[in-house]
Protein backbone atom coordinates (compact mmCIF):
# COMPACT_ATOMS: atom_id res chain seq x y z
CA UNK A 1 0.00 0.00 0.00
CA UNK A 2 1.29 3.45 -0.94
CA UNK A 3 2.19 5.87 1.83
CA UNK A 4 1.72 9.65 1.87
CA UNK A 5 4.77 11.69 0.88
CA UNK A 6 5.62 15.36 1.33
CA UNK A 7 4.66 17.58 -1.61
CA UNK A 8 7.48 20.06 -0.89
CA UNK A 9 9.26 21.86 1.94
CA UNK A 10 6.37 23.87 3.39
CA UNK A 11 4.35 24.09 6.57
CA UNK A 12 1.40 26.42 7.06
CA UNK A 13 -0.81 27.47 9.94
CA UNK A 14 -4.20 26.16 8.76
CA UNK A 15 -3.91 24.93 5.15
CA UNK A 16 -7.33 23.98 3.75
CA UNK A 17 -9.40 23.79 0.56
CA UNK A 18 -6.80 22.18 -1.77
CA UNK A 19 -7.95 22.73 -5.35
CA UNK A 20 -6.39 21.29 -8.49
CA UNK A 21 -6.08 23.47 -11.58
CA UNK A 22 -6.09 21.18 -14.60
CA UNK A 23 -5.27 24.10 -16.89
CA UNK A 24 -2.20 25.14 -14.88
CA UNK A 25 -1.27 21.65 -13.63
CA UNK A 26 -0.88 23.31 -10.25
CA UNK A 27 -2.30 22.94 -6.76
CA UNK A 28 -4.01 25.86 -5.04
CA UNK A 29 -4.93 25.99 -1.35
CA UNK A 30 -5.91 28.45 1.36
CA UNK A 31 -4.16 29.09 4.65
CA UNK A 32 -7.30 30.21 6.44
CA UNK A 33 -5.85 31.94 9.49
CA UNK A 34 -3.10 33.69 7.51
CA UNK A 35 -5.55 35.06 4.92
CA UNK A 36 -3.59 33.57 2.04
CA UNK A 37 -4.06 31.63 -1.19
CA UNK A 38 -1.08 29.51 -2.23
CA UNK A 39 -0.15 28.03 -5.60
CA UNK A 40 2.39 25.25 -6.22
CA UNK A 41 3.30 24.23 -9.77
CA UNK A 42 4.26 20.57 -9.78
CA UNK A 43 6.63 20.57 -12.75
CA UNK A 44 8.64 23.67 -11.86
CA UNK A 45 8.32 23.67 -8.07
CA UNK A 46 7.29 27.34 -8.17
CA UNK A 47 5.45 28.41 -5.01
CA UNK A 48 3.58 31.73 -4.88
CA UNK A 49 1.25 33.40 -2.36
CA UNK A 50 -1.65 35.86 -2.64
CA UNK A 51 -2.64 37.82 0.49
CA UNK A 52 -6.18 38.82 1.49
CA UNK A 53 -7.46 41.21 4.18
CA UNK A 54 -9.33 38.53 6.18
CA UNK A 55 -9.33 34.78 6.79
CA UNK A 56 -9.99 32.83 3.58
CA UNK A 57 -12.34 30.02 4.59
CA UNK A 58 -12.69 28.54 1.11
CA UNK A 59 -12.50 29.50 -2.55
CA UNK A 60 -12.92 28.23 -6.08
CA UNK A 61 -11.24 29.03 -9.37
CA UNK A 62 -13.44 31.07 -11.73
CA UNK A 63 -14.06 30.06 -15.35
CA UNK A 64 -13.41 33.71 -16.28
CA UNK A 65 -10.14 33.74 -14.35
CA UNK A 66 -9.42 34.66 -10.77
CA UNK A 67 -11.31 33.36 -7.76
CA UNK A 68 -14.51 33.40 -5.77
CA UNK A 69 -13.39 33.77 -2.16
CA UNK A 70 -15.37 33.27 1.07
CA UNK A 71 -13.74 35.41 3.74
CA UNK A 72 -14.95 36.05 7.30
CA UNK A 73 -17.36 38.89 6.55
CA UNK A 74 -18.35 38.31 2.93
CA UNK A 75 -17.96 36.36 -0.29
CA UNK A 76 -16.10 38.23 -3.05
CA UNK A 77 -15.00 37.83 -6.62
CA UNK A 78 -11.27 38.42 -6.99
CA UNK A 79 -9.04 38.73 -10.01
CA UNK A 80 -6.03 36.52 -10.73
CA UNK A 81 -3.79 38.83 -8.67
CA UNK A 82 -6.04 38.37 -5.63
CA UNK A 83 -7.54 41.87 -5.82
CA UNK A 84 -11.17 42.03 -4.67
CA UNK A 85 -13.35 43.28 -7.53
CA UNK A 86 -16.98 42.60 -6.54
CA UNK A 87 -18.77 41.69 -3.31
CA UNK A 88 -21.20 38.82 -3.88
CA UNK A 89 -22.91 38.76 -0.48
CA UNK A 90 -22.33 39.23 3.23
CA UNK A 91 -21.80 36.33 5.62
CA UNK A 92 -25.39 35.40 6.64
CA UNK A 93 -24.08 34.12 9.98
CA UNK A 94 -22.81 36.42 12.72
CA UNK A 95 -19.29 37.00 11.31
CA UNK A 96 -17.87 37.71 14.76
CA UNK A 97 -18.85 34.20 15.83
CA UNK A 98 -18.91 32.20 12.59
CA UNK A 99 -16.38 32.52 9.78
CA UNK A 100 -16.62 30.77 6.45
CA UNK A 101 -14.92 27.39 6.31
CA UNK A 102 -15.12 24.50 3.82
CA UNK A 103 -16.57 24.96 0.33
CA UNK A 104 -16.34 24.22 -3.38
CA UNK A 105 -18.34 23.82 -6.58
CA UNK A 106 -20.92 21.40 -7.96
CA UNK A 107 -21.16 20.04 -11.51
CA UNK A 108 -23.13 23.12 -12.61
CA UNK A 109 -20.31 25.42 -11.51
CA UNK A 110 -22.17 26.84 -8.52
CA UNK A 111 -20.20 27.75 -5.40
CA UNK A 112 -20.98 26.39 -1.95
CA UNK A 113 -19.56 27.78 1.29
CA UNK A 114 -20.30 26.71 4.84
CA UNK A 115 -19.56 28.37 8.16
CA UNK A 116 -18.00 27.21 11.42
CA UNK A 117 -19.65 28.25 14.67
CA UNK A 118 -16.74 29.48 16.79
CA UNK A 119 -18.24 29.29 20.31
CA UNK A 120 -19.11 25.61 19.82
CA UNK A 121 -22.11 25.86 22.16
CA UNK A 122 -24.80 24.88 19.62
CA UNK A 123 -25.37 24.22 15.92
CA UNK A 124 -25.23 27.83 14.77
CA UNK A 125 -23.51 27.36 11.40
CA UNK A 126 -24.96 26.96 7.91
CA UNK A 127 -24.28 26.06 4.28
CA UNK A 128 -25.04 28.46 1.45
CA UNK A 129 -24.83 28.36 -2.33
CA UNK A 130 -23.92 31.08 -4.83
CA UNK A 131 -25.69 30.44 -8.12
CA UNK A 132 -24.29 31.24 -11.56
CA UNK A 133 -26.17 34.59 -11.53
CA UNK A 134 -24.47 35.38 -8.17
CA UNK A 135 -27.72 34.89 -6.20
CA UNK A 136 -26.99 33.64 -2.66
CA UNK A 137 -29.20 31.03 -0.97
CA UNK A 138 -28.89 29.36 2.43
CA UNK A 139 -29.62 25.67 1.82
CA UNK A 140 -28.84 23.94 5.14
CA UNK A 141 -28.66 24.91 8.81
CA UNK A 142 -28.36 23.01 12.11
CA UNK A 143 -24.58 22.61 11.68
CA UNK A 144 -21.84 23.31 14.20
CA UNK A 145 -18.87 23.20 11.83
CA UNK A 146 -19.45 22.68 8.10
CA UNK A 147 -16.89 20.55 6.26
CA UNK A 148 -16.55 17.66 3.84
CA UNK A 149 -18.36 19.07 0.80
CA UNK A 150 -18.17 16.70 -2.17
CA UNK A 151 -20.45 15.67 -5.05
CA UNK A 152 -20.86 12.21 -6.54
CA UNK A 153 -19.95 11.68 -10.19
CA UNK A 154 -23.51 10.55 -11.00
CA UNK A 155 -24.79 13.97 -9.76
CA UNK A 156 -27.24 12.29 -7.38
CA UNK A 157 -25.62 13.07 -4.02
CA UNK A 158 -24.05 15.91 -2.11
CA UNK A 159 -21.90 14.90 0.85
CA UNK A 160 -21.05 17.14 3.80
CA UNK A 161 -19.68 16.64 7.30
CA UNK A 162 -20.22 18.36 10.63
CA UNK A 163 -16.77 18.06 12.15
CA UNK A 164 -17.42 18.89 15.84
CA UNK A 165 -20.44 16.56 15.84
CA UNK A 166 -18.44 13.73 14.22
CA UNK A 167 -20.91 12.97 11.43
CA UNK A 168 -20.92 12.71 7.63
CA UNK A 169 -24.21 13.46 5.86
CA UNK A 170 -25.41 12.80 2.36
CA UNK A 171 -28.15 14.77 0.64
CA UNK A 172 -30.04 13.66 -2.49
CA UNK A 173 -30.05 16.03 -5.45
CA UNK A 174 -32.71 16.39 -8.13
CA UNK A 175 -32.01 16.91 -11.85
CA UNK A 176 -31.46 20.63 -11.27
CA UNK A 177 -29.10 19.94 -8.37
CA UNK A 178 -31.57 21.11 -5.74
CA UNK A 179 -31.04 19.37 -2.38
CA UNK A 180 -33.55 17.14 -0.65
CA UNK A 181 -33.52 16.02 2.98
CA UNK A 182 -30.06 15.17 4.30
CA UNK A 183 -29.43 11.83 6.01
CA UNK A 184 -26.64 10.41 8.17
CA UNK A 185 -24.02 8.62 6.07
CA UNK A 186 -21.68 7.70 8.92
CA UNK A 187 -21.36 8.63 12.61
CA UNK A 188 -17.96 8.42 14.30
CA UNK A 189 -17.09 7.30 17.80
CA UNK A 190 -14.46 8.76 20.16
CA UNK A 191 -10.95 7.77 19.11
CA UNK A 192 -11.69 7.42 15.39
CA UNK A 193 -11.00 11.05 14.57
CA UNK A 194 -13.63 13.43 13.24
CA UNK A 195 -14.46 14.00 9.55
CA UNK A 196 -13.01 17.16 8.02
CA UNK A 197 -12.58 18.04 4.32
CA UNK A 198 -13.25 15.44 1.65
CA UNK A 199 -13.38 14.45 -2.02
CA UNK A 200 -15.13 11.83 -4.19
CA UNK A 201 -13.64 9.29 -6.58
CA UNK A 202 -15.12 7.90 -9.80
CA UNK A 203 -16.38 4.76 -8.04
CA UNK A 204 -18.60 6.84 -5.77
CA UNK A 205 -16.33 6.47 -2.75
CA UNK A 206 -15.84 9.30 -0.27
CA UNK A 207 -12.35 10.18 0.94
CA UNK A 208 -12.28 12.02 4.27
CA UNK A 209 -9.49 13.72 6.19
CA UNK A 210 -9.93 12.39 9.73
CA UNK A 211 -9.02 15.36 11.91
CA UNK A 212 -7.44 14.33 15.23
CA UNK A 213 -7.25 10.82 13.78
CA UNK A 214 -3.79 10.67 12.10
CA UNK A 215 -5.33 9.28 8.91
CA UNK A 216 -7.22 9.56 5.64
CA UNK A 217 -10.10 7.13 5.14
CA UNK A 218 -11.97 5.92 2.05
CA UNK A 219 -15.64 4.98 2.44
CA UNK A 220 -17.87 3.02 0.08
CA UNK A 221 -21.15 4.48 -1.24
CA UNK A 222 -22.82 2.62 1.65
CA UNK A 223 -20.56 4.18 4.29
CA UNK A 224 -18.29 1.17 4.91
CA UNK A 225 -14.62 1.98 5.47
CA UNK A 226 -12.64 0.38 2.66
CA UNK A 227 -9.13 1.68 3.39
CA UNK A 228 -7.14 4.05 5.56
CA UNK A 229 -3.78 5.73 5.12
CA UNK A 230 -1.83 6.79 8.19
CA UNK A 231 -0.13 10.17 8.42
CA UNK A 232 2.83 11.36 10.52
CA UNK A 233 0.67 14.23 11.86
CA UNK A 234 -2.47 14.27 13.98
CA UNK A 235 -4.73 16.64 12.08
CA UNK A 236 -5.30 16.36 8.33
CA UNK A 237 -7.79 19.00 7.18
CA UNK A 238 -8.85 18.20 3.60
CA UNK A 239 -8.09 16.16 0.49
CA UNK A 240 -8.47 16.72 -3.24
CA UNK A 241 -7.64 14.77 -6.39
CA UNK A 242 -5.32 16.06 -9.07
CA UNK A 243 -2.44 15.25 -11.36
CA UNK A 244 -2.51 14.47 -15.06
CA UNK A 245 -4.69 11.38 -14.54
CA UNK A 246 -6.52 12.61 -11.40
CA UNK A 247 -4.92 9.77 -9.45
CA UNK A 248 -2.93 11.85 -6.98
CA UNK A 249 -4.55 12.67 -3.66
CA UNK A 250 -3.35 15.94 -2.12
CA UNK A 251 -3.70 16.19 1.66
CA UNK A 252 -3.57 19.41 3.69
CA UNK A 253 -2.81 19.37 7.43
CA UNK A 254 -2.69 21.93 10.24
CA UNK A 255 -0.74 23.05 13.28
CA UNK A 256 -3.55 25.29 14.61
CA UNK A 257 -3.89 25.18 18.42
CA UNK A 258 -0.83 22.93 18.81
CA UNK A 259 1.63 23.76 21.55
CA UNK A 260 5.38 24.07 21.01
CA UNK A 261 6.01 20.53 22.22
CA UNK A 262 3.64 18.91 19.74
CA UNK A 263 5.09 20.95 16.88
CA UNK A 264 8.58 19.91 17.97
CA UNK A 265 7.51 16.25 18.16
CA UNK A 266 5.57 16.37 14.86
CA UNK A 267 7.24 19.12 12.79
CA UNK A 268 5.36 18.17 9.60
CA UNK A 269 2.09 19.42 11.10
CA UNK A 270 0.84 21.99 8.58
CA UNK A 271 2.58 20.30 5.63
CA UNK A 272 0.95 19.06 2.41
CA UNK A 273 1.22 15.41 1.45
CA UNK A 274 0.56 13.45 -1.74
CA UNK A 275 -0.74 9.92 -2.13
CA UNK A 276 -0.93 7.92 -5.39
CA UNK A 277 -4.29 6.13 -5.69
CA UNK A 278 -5.73 3.57 -8.08
CA UNK A 279 -9.12 5.18 -8.76
CA UNK A 280 -9.30 8.63 -10.33
CA UNK A 281 -11.06 11.42 -8.51
CA UNK A 282 -14.04 13.47 -9.63
CA UNK A 283 -12.92 16.72 -11.27
CA UNK A 284 -14.07 19.98 -9.68
CA UNK A 285 -15.80 22.49 -11.92
CA UNK A 286 -14.66 26.08 -12.00
CA UNK A 287 -17.17 28.64 -10.73
CA UNK A 288 -19.28 29.69 -13.72
CA UNK A 289 -20.84 33.20 -13.91
CA UNK A 290 -23.65 34.04 -16.26
Automatic annotation (TrEMBL):
GO BP terms: L-ascorbic acid biosynthetic process
Binding site for a divalent metal cation: 16, 147, 196
Enzyme Commission number: 3.1.1.99
Cofactors that this protein relies on: Zn(2+)
Keyword Hydrolase included in the entry's annotation: yes
Enzyme class: hydrolase
Transmembrane segments: none
Protein name as catalogued: SMP-30/gluconolactonase/LRE family protein
Gene source species: Phytobacter ursingii
Lineage start: Bacteria, Pseudomonadati, Pseudomonadota, Gammaproteobacteria, Enterobacterales
Amino acid sequence: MAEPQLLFDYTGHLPECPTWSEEEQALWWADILEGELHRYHLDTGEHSVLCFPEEVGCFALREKGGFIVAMRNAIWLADKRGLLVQKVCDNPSNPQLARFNDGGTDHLGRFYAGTFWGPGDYNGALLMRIDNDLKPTVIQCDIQGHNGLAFSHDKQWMFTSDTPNGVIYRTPLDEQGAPGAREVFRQFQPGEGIPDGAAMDMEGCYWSAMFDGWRIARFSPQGEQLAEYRLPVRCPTMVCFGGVDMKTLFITTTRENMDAQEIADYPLSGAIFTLPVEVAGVKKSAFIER
